[in-house]
Amino acid sequence: MEKFNGTLGDGSTLFNRLGWFLGLNLAWLLLAVLTVWLGWRSYSLSTSGSVADGTVVRLLEDGVAFDSDFYPVVEFQVDSKTYTVQSQNNYRWWNRYTRFPVGGQVEVRYETANPENAEINTWWDVWNETIILGMFTIFAAISVNVYLLFRWRSQRVAAVPQGDDIRAATIGRGV
């Protein structure tokens, strides 16, 4: 007589599979919530933010090579108070001469109620985090769930006796 121990054909338990499924999907849900929050922040900055002229004060470089990427640091003024913003985007070396020369002028979009929340006023600077994190979250969630589904289905099919295996199992039991 066989004892039921709650294991599936591959030795894993339903609880184990459910834990993986729920745990990974909870991670994707948290990333989706973060993406929505970043999207709301970008949307509110785009729609209700103000624009000021800023000056590139320095370039923070990734390395010492001539062709290394850099992050522009821009100062701007709101109500006679100076604020500094570092771009969250890195730029290729040729932009240091064309778009962001030290001392050059750029537009900065800032939150009116909190000018410390600011970005360089380009579409990509304002929306890039939302786009990249959103695409990653969607791709990863779909990929992992499809992988788990096909893996568990293939293990279930492999565990079920088929054809000659069924006959041998019934003959062995004297049926």
Order of helices and strands: HEEEHEEHH
* Cα-based radius of gyration, to the nearest Å: 28 Å
Largest sheet: 5 strands, antiparallel
User: How much strand?
Assistant: 15-25%
Helix content: 40-55%
Number of helices: 4
Global shape: elongated
Q: Give the end-to-end Cα distance, rounded to a whole number of Å.
A: 15 Å
Strand adjacency order, main sheet: 3-2-1-4-5
| Number of discrete domains | 1
State the secondary-structure class.
alpha+beta
Low-confidence stretches: none
Mean pLDDT: 82
DSSP, total strands = 5
**Assembly state:** single chain
Structure overview:
This protein is an alpha+beta fold and 175 residues long. It has one domain (14-163). Helices cover 49% and strands 21% of the residues. It contains four helices and five strands; from the N terminus they run H-E-E-E-H-E-E-H-H. The chain has a five-stranded antiparallel sheet with strand order 3-2-1-4-5, with helices on one face. A hairpin with an 8-residue loop joins strand 1 and strand 2.
